[in-house]
Design a protein that fits this description.
It holds the Pfam family OsmC. The protein is 33% helix and 38% strand. It has helices at residues 40-62, 102-116, 118-125; strands at 3-9, 12-17, 22-25, 66-78, 86-98, 129-138. Helix 1 packs across helix 2. It is elongated, with a radius of gyration of 17 Å. By secondary structure, the chain is of the alpha+beta class. It folds into two domains: 1-38, N-terminal domain of TfIIb, CATH 2.20.25; 40-138, K homology (KH) domain (GMP Synthetase, Chain A, domain 3).
C-alpha cells in the first residue's frame, strides 16, 4: 500500500492513495488553515470506522442478513498533552434491516474488533482503549 501527501499551502494538504483517490486535509483557521478539509487525526478515526464497518457488513452479507443500512458512530478522546494521541475510542454500530438476528450482528462486531479490523487492532496495540457496541433497528418501508 502506498500514498502521497502533498502540502498545498498554510495547513492544507492533499493526500492521494495508491488507488488514485484523493482527500483534502486542512487545519483550523487559528492554525493557518482555512477549514476546507478533515483534520489528519479525523482521517485516522474515519479510516478505523471504514475498516470496521467493511468487516461487519461483509460478515452480515455472508450470513445472509437483510441489511438495509449500517453506520458506525465513533467517539474519541485524546490526551490533553502533546502529542494529543487518542486515549479512548468507542464504535457504536447501528444496523438497520429486516429480521436481523442479534447473534449474527453481535458476532460480526466481535470478530471485527478481535480479529479482522487492522485499524482497530493497531490502535489497541498502541494503548488506545477501544470499545464496541451495537444496536439493531427493524426496517419499515
Amino acid at each position: 500500500m502506498q500514498a502521497v501527501v502533498k502540502w498545498v499551502d498554510g495547513a492544507m494538504f492533499i493526500g492521494e492513495a495508491g488507488s488514485g483517490h484523493s482527500v483534502v486535509m486542512d487545519g483550523p483557521e487559528d492554525q493557518g488553515g482555512r477549514n476546507l478539509g478533515v483534520r489528519p487525526m479525523e482521517m485516522l478515526l474515519l479510516g478505523m470506522g471504514g475498516c470496521s464497518t467493511f468487516d461487519v457488513m461483509s460478515m452480515l452479507r455472508k450470513s445472509r442478513q437483510k441489511v438495509v443500512d449500517c453506520r458506525v458512530e465513533l467517539s474519541a478522546e485524546r490526551a490533553d498533552a502533546v502529542p494529543a494521541v487518542f486515549t479512548r475510542i468507542h464504535l457504536k454500530f447501528v444496523v438497520v434491516g429486516e429480521g436481523l438476528k442479534e447473534t449474527q450482528v453481535a458476532r460480526a462486531v466481535q470478530l471485527s474488533a478481535e480479529k479482522y479490523c487492522s485499524a482497530s487492532i493497531m490502535m489497541e496495540s498502541a494503548g488506545v482503549e477501544v470499545t464496541h457496541s451495537y444496536s439493531i433497528e427493524e426496517f419499515s418501508a
